[in-house]
Specification:
single chain; 85 residues; alpha+beta; Trna Endonuclease, Chain: A, domain 1; 5-stranded mixed β-sheet; 2 helices; 5 strands; 35% strand; globular
């Protein structure tokens, strides 16, 4: 399995972001499944799920303070990496 994600340390908090399909963020069951599946790859870190709409605009789901921070960061500044597990 491959997925795109990033680990960021900002303001003393280390957290992970994982890119998911937009439909995942539309359903709490899908959010829970994605969170459970990806969290094992980022143990002990808050996990943020991110999806982009057709215009490339990101939507973040997760811890509110981190989501607020990410709302002010351009997506190109996130150090994305392809993970193979």
């Amino acid at each position: 399995m491959q997925f795109e994600g990033a680990v960021i340390k900002e303001q003393g908090i280390t957290f992970a972001i994982v890119i998911v399909k937009p439909h995942v963020l539309n359903n709490s069951h899908s959010i829970d499944d994605a969170r459970q599946g990806f969290s094992r790859h980022f143990p002990g870190m808050p996990l943020i799920l991110m999806a982009q709409d057709s215009r490339g605009i990101p939507t973040y789901q997760g811890r509110k303070d981190i989501v607020r921070y990410l709302a002010n960061v351009h997506i190109s500044r996130i150090p994305w990496k392809r993970y193979t597990v």
